[in-house]
Design a protein that fits this description.
With 173 residues, the protein is an all-beta fold. The protein is 2% helix and 40% strand. The chain has 1 helix and 9 strands, in the order ββαβββββββ. Strands 1, 2, 3, 4, 5, 6, 7, 8 and 9 form a 9-stranded antiparallel sheet that branches. Strand 4 and strand 5 form a beta hairpin. It is elongated. The two termini are 26 Å apart.
């Protein structure tokens, strides 16, 4: 499971978030450190909101061990306009949402084996004008990826292409 988005309340860090995902990759085979993982957090935000920082903290929880907090650093070159804009969208129009992609990377060594590891990140807020999720303006985001490393030192599925940022009414996709 990866990239799950839930709406939450009570956060006040960034604004105008539009989506994102969180992934993990087992790297212990190459580092020689058991339970060693690379974390990738990608966040899309509308350029009209409050910017994101150079770091993002990912929390890792389980029922077996204490919580871990991992500082993920902004990947050089990210923080700019996200690729993939549908051809019918005019990025110079004031009615068009222009999204930036912030990608963060961090590393963690999990404490041991557990069936319910959760890697998560949360922040506030959705931009105004969201019409497909009623009442979501100003509410927060929560991204989570789960791991059962009793089944092995697995990696989460990876998105291999950028998501399309906009779909235009009455156009094929």
């Amino acid at each position: 499971t990866f990239g799950l988005i839930l709406i939450t309340f009570g956060f006040s860090k960034a604004s105008h978030l539009s989506g994102g995902d969180i992934q993990y990759r087992y790297i212990g085979d190459s580092t020689g450190i058991n339970h060693h993982y690379e974390i990738l957090l990608r966040v899309y935000r509308d350029v009209t909101g409050v910017g994101l920082g150079n770091t993002a903290n990912v929390t890792i929880t389980s029922s077996c061990f204490n919580n871990l907090s991992v500082t993920c650093n902004l990947i050089p070159g990210s923080g700019g306009i996200a690729p993939t804009l549908h051809d019918c969208v005019d990025p110079t129009s004031p009615s068009t949402k222009t999204l930036e992609l912030y990608a963060y990377k961090g590393y963690v060594t999990l404490t041991g084996q557990c069936s319910d590891w959760k890697f998560y990140w949360s922040s506030c807020c959705r931009p105004p004008g969201i019409t497909n999720i009623p009442g979501s303006s100003g509410q927060g985001f929560y991204f989570e990826a789960e791991l059962n490393n009793f089944l092995g030192n697995n990696s989460s599925p990876l998105f291999v292409s950028e998501p399309v940022r906009a779909f235009c009414v009455n156009n094929n996709f």
